[in-house]
Amino acid sequence: MNLAERVLAAQKGGRGIPTEPGAPAGPATPARAVTEPGGPVPAAPSAPRDNAPPAPWLPVPESSTQTAPSPTVTWAPPSAKGAQTDDHRLAHRAPAQPVVVETHDALARIKEDAVEQLFERMGSRLNDPNLDETALQGLVQAELNSIIEGGKLPLTARERQRLIREVHDDVLGLGPLQPLIDDKAVTEVMVNGPFRVYVERAGKLTLSQVRFKDEAHVRRIIERIVTKVGRRIDESSPLVDARLEDGSRVNAIIPPLAVSGSTLTIRKFSKDALTVTDMIEKQSLTPEIAELLNACVVARLNIIVSGGTGTGKTTLLNVLSGFIPNDERIVSIEDAVELQLQQDHVVRLESRPPNVEGKGEVTIRDLVKNSLRMRPDRIIVGECRGGEALDMLQAMNTGHDGSLSTIHANTSRDALARLETLVLMAGMDLPLRAIREQVSSAIDVIVQLTRLRDGSRRVTSVTEVHGMEGQTITMQDVFEFDYSAGVGPDGRFLGTIRPTGVRPGFTQKFDDLGIRLSPSVFGTGQLWSGGRH
Ligand SMILES: Nc1ncnc2c1ncn2[C@@H]1O[C@H](COP(=O)(O)OP(=O)(O)OP(=O)(O)O)[C@@H](O)[C@H]1O
Ligand SMILES: [Mg+2]
User: Does ligand 1 have an atom closer than 6 angstroms to the CB of 249?
Assistant: First the structure.
């Protein structure tokens, strides 16, 4: 049966072709093998319907599942005891829960055919490095039009449009992930093998309805991402960090290292980074903390933003760097450029992983050392995660004050312990006391971020680092989060971050520089609006 006949058959069968993702699906046919770019791959044996992927892999917007008719057939065991139908016998073998059988999307099959034909026609031209993206897109578009014309498919204009978009996404874009990447509300996409794609929205993780066709389909998309940035992923180098064209950060790891199937993690890059006002609106910090941090940056204090993974360290670092006066020369050093500095005088440096032969690596540490020869007024290190900690501390202690960085730690005390460990990684064999002295004299403020159970990201402490007492670094919380307020009926934390009443020693520096803070900042005088007290 050719494509046109299939469509007609589907339409005669009364199911038609769904016009919206998530609408009722067409009749079932065996899954087809996907052809790899650059040459066909042996077709997987046609699977009987029952062995087909658990759900159509076409993306289904979560919201549409509530409004559109469900694409699933829900079958529950009959409750009448003694009914002797086949259904009833099956019911005894069935699990207690209703069984959800997803039907297949007719358009999805047509799309598979179109993708297959497209790969056959395009062959190695799809990966031709001499073809730029616009030329490639033009070629794909032309071939795709001719496939659709040639197939004489009785598609409506809308179906045709959808077909073209999805084939385009699959061949040139990120396949089923493309709608998630395009969805502004999604901040992170996590693919755990072909059938489990998680997304983060408003700080909460949920399993999306997006599915890949099979493992080969995920691999094809991963390969597209990494080959575009000149890297490769295969059994000999099964893990890769890369970046999408829009700046989103990508990590891919494939079997045999990823036992549960190819795994992809995409931290979406937001073109409109959160501003200090956004963070106040989201209750991540209070206007008073914003005022204090602004003063700390202007007064050239050395600040470390500490937090667990994905707590918003880079976002806060970006906000803090926004407080740097415009007449200063800033050198930013990152693994993958994420900071969006608004100032004019900025030099952005990015580290480089080793190439395929293991050569050519330029580490963050190399860049920190190099930056000292670039006459920086400020050095911003995206994240301290190795020996660069030592060079950064030395820079902070030798005239490059006002530096900013982030560190992976769950409390401000842990952040100092982690810094010590990182300094040891520099391999200088320094005595612990010397390291602690370096740390305590270099770091002035630690801002701790936490992602709370309600999904919100908050500043949970602002801590001043004083100095040393015996072998211990002394520190004092200036602000701390009030967990005792508990959780509201909607699951949201009711507490807020409150001043401890301590006036930090560094305010002396503010006074010297003539920086005036509102009296309310440290909890004296009028408290912040919206604060609990
Ligand atoms: N205060 C905030 N409120 C809501 N969302 C936030 C906040 N800060 C950051 N985010 C979002 O959280 C995600 C992670 O932020 P970010 O990259 O800054 O975290 P990170 O701690 O640097 O992560 P990593 O440890 O992976 O480097 C992003 O999608 C960002 O937009
Ligand atoms: Mg980060």
Answer: no
Lowest-pLDDT range of 46-60, 494-508, 513-527: 46-60
Alpha helices in 265-382 (DSSP H): 276-281, 287-298, 313-321, 364-371
The answer to whether residues 260 and 192 touch, using CB atoms and an 8 Å cutoff, is yes
Q: How far is the CA of 200 from the centre of ligand 1 (A)?
A: 11
Torsion from C-alpha of 158, 246, 37, 211, nearest 10 degrees: -60
Q: How far apart are CA 363 and CA 75, in angstroms?
A: 57
Would you call 25 helix, strand, or coil by DSSP?
A: coil
Q: Which of 189, 457, 492, 496 to mutate to test the pocket of ligand 1 (most atoms within 8 A of CB)?
A: 457
Determine which residue's CA is closest to atom 4 belonging to ligand 1.
457
**Beta pairing class for 204-207 and 197-201:** antiparallel
| 136 touches 84 (CB < 8 A) | no
pLDDT tens digits for range 297-351: 999 999 999 999 999 999 999 999 999 999 999 999 998 888 999 899 999 999 9
451 CB within 6 A, ligand 1 = no
| Ligand 1 and 310: CB distance under 6 A | yes
Angle between helices 157-172 and 106-122 (to 10 degrees): 50
